[in-house]
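Homework help thread (please don't just give me the answer)

Our assignment gives two proteins as sequence + C-alpha cell strings and asks us to describe the second one. The first is just a warm-up. Here they are:
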Amino acid sequence: CGHVHNFWYNRHGDTDCYILPSTAFVRHDYSELSRVAPALDAEHGRNDLPKLGFFLVRIYERGHVCHVVRTYGATLDPGAALAPTGETVAPLHSRENVRAPLGLDLRQPWAEVVEITATGAVDEFERKKVRNDYPLLALWEMGVRTLRVPFQDLEDAGVRERMRLLRHMGHRFIVYTFDVPRGRTRDLLIEHHDVVDTWEVVALWPDVARILEGIAEIKGKAPLAVSLSRLRGKDHAHPGGGRFYHFIDHGFVPSEREAIEQLVLMGARDVVDGVTYRILRQDSPWRAIGSAAEIVAAAGLRATVVVRMASQNPAQAFNDDLANANRVAEALAAAMAQSTRGVAVVIDGFADIDRGYFVRTGLVDRRWNPRLGAHVVRNLYGALNETSELIVGGDVYEASGGRVVTLHRPTELLALVLPEPHARLHGVPASAGSELTSGLARVIDLETGSITRQPWQRRDDGLAIADGIACAVPMLTCFAAG
C-alpha cells in the first residue's frame, strides 16, 4: 500500500508488508522523522525530491526483493517519450548481495520511534508514534548487510526485535560492549545470542587475561563468534602541546603485530574468533586492510576492520563528498580483495554528523537521502558482484589527478579511479594487466551506474585509453581482451 506517501517495512507472520514511496509528493508531517528542518525549496517537506519514486519488485522462486527507484520528482511533458536510459549497472538489494564484506557502523538511531506532531490537519486528537525506516531503505538500496551497533540496541526490546526481523532480509549484526558484561546485561546477551552474529568486546589491555576468561565463560552458555578490540588509553596519545586526549578510541592498528602474537601465545584462539582493527583517516584503506589481513592470516584469526572517516582531532571537519566517497570506494575494493582471508570491513560514517565532535558527511544526509558515497557503494557493489568470479587484489597507484586501485577477475582487469576534482584517466601503469593487448573497456560512472565503452590498447607505459576519461566522481574501468 502507499496511502501515506512514505516508506515503511513490517512483517506480519511470514508476510512482508511494505508502504510505498510516492512519485508525486511526500506527506510532509512525517518530516518530523528527521532532526533537521526540511530543505528550503522542499515546500515544508512536501517536496523532498530524493524520497519520491517507486518500487521495482524482483520475484524469485523463494521470495522477492523490492528495489527503490528514486525519480527525484522527474516528469514528462504530455505526449513526450521517455528517452532511452542506456546500459547501467544492476544494483543488488541487501538480501541479494551474498558477497558483501563492507558493512556500516550505525552511530545514529536507525530504528527510532518518533512522535509526530498533531498538526490539526489529518490528526488533531493525538500524536502519532512511527518508526523511521528511511535508514533501512538506504541500506537496502546500497546492498549493505553487516551493521555494527552498540549493546544498547540489544537491550531495547523494540530495536532487538527489529534486528531479529532484519536477519530475514540478510542483515548481520556486530554488537559491541566495553569489557565483559555482568548481571542483567550478561543474561540478555546469552538469551538473545541468536540476534548477534559477532560479539565485539572492547578490552583494557592490562585486563585482557581476565577478559578472555569472562568471554570463555559466556561462550560456554551461548555459541557466539567473538572479536576482541583494544581500548586506546592516554599512553597511545600523541604527546606535545600540553593538550588533553579528548576522545575514546579503540581497535588494534596494523603496526601492532606483536600484540596479536601475544594474544595467540595466551591461547586466545581457543576463546576469540578474531580481532578488531581501526584504520586512521590519514591511512590508505587499501594498504592498511591488506596489512591487517596478513597479520590475522598468520595468527589463524579473522579481522573486523573499522575505517574511520574522521581524524583524531575532534574539531576537524571532513565535508568533502568526493574525498569521502573515494575513501569508501577504496575500502570496498579492499574488502572485496581480502574477503576470502576472513576480513570484514566496516565504514564509520553512515549518516552525516553535522554538530558536536568529529563532524563529517556520511553516505546519507540527515534526512537519510543518499549522498555521493551511497551511490558509489550501490554501483560498485553491483559492478563487482555482476559475476561470482573470484576477485583478487592488485595494487594502488598514484596517478595524475588522483589514485588508481587495480583488481583482477579471471577475464578482466578492473581499475578503480579515485579522482581529484576534474581529473582525467588516460590509462593504467604497465605493470597491471600484462597479458592484455587491446580491447573495448567498460567505463562505469559510480554515481549514476551508467556504462560507456572506450577503445584501449597496450603501450610501453601501460594500458592506454585514446582520448582519456573525464572523472568527476569515482569510476570503474574494466579492461578485457578482445
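The one we have to describe:
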Amino acid sequence: RLVLALIALPLALGLTACGKKDGDAAGANPVGAPLNAVAPPAGKAWTDVIAVTPEGGYVMGNPNAPIKVIEFGSLTCPHCAEFEEKGFPHLRDDYVAKGTVSLEFRNFVRDPYDTAMAMLIRCGSPDSFFALTEQVYANQKDIFEQLKPVGPALQAANLPPADIFKAIGERGGLMDFFAARGIAKDQAAQCLAKADTATKLANDTSKAGDTYNVTGTPTFIVNGRNVEVATWEALEPILKQAGAR
C-alpha cells in the first residue's frame, strides 16, 4: 500500500517536505572533552569502510565511533544537495576520517523520482553508495531538467505500478546517468523492477517520521537525538561540543 501511495504522488519536482530552519539545539549541548583519533584498519581509511545497516541505511566510518550521525536525505531535495556540496566533504574528511564520528545516510523518499534514484544507487556495491549519492546531488539540476517531461507522459500512459520506476529510469535518462557510473542498463532495469526495494524505502521513510520526527530534509540525528538543524554551519558546532575536534 505504501508503494502504491508513493507512486500516486504527483509526478512533479516540488519542494514539499524539503528543507527546514535550523533550531538552537547547538547551544544546549554540553562541551565534551576532545576525542582522540582512532586508527583505521591496516591499509584502509575510515572513509573507505562502508556497511549496510539493518535500518536500511549505509554507514561510513568507524562502527564504534563515539559520535554517530544519521542523515535523512531526499535525492530530489535541493537543500540536501546544498548540504552535500558544503557540508559532506568536511564531515567526511575532518571528522569521519578520524574515527571519532560515523555517518549513516538513510533515504527519505518523497516522490517516485526520488525512489527510482534510491533504487538505482542500491544497484551498486555498498562501497559505491556514497559516491553515487554524491554524483546525484552534484548533477541534481541536470537530472531535474531531464525528468521534467516524464510526469505528464507517464500519467498519460497509465502504466501499471510495477512498471513505473523502470519507465522513470528509461524516459528520464536515469539509466544512462547510472550506466556512465558503472551500473549497466540491464542491471539497472532489474533493480528498478524490485518491488521489495521500493516497499522497504517507503516503509523506512514512514518509520523515520514516527521514530525521529523527521518532517523535512535534511534531518540529522546525533547519538539518537534529532538535533533540529539542517545546515553544516549549525551541525558542526554540535559535533565539536560532543568532542569531535
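TA reply:
I won't write it for you, but here's a hint about the kind of observation we're looking for: The CA atoms of residues 71 and 220 lie 5 Å apart.
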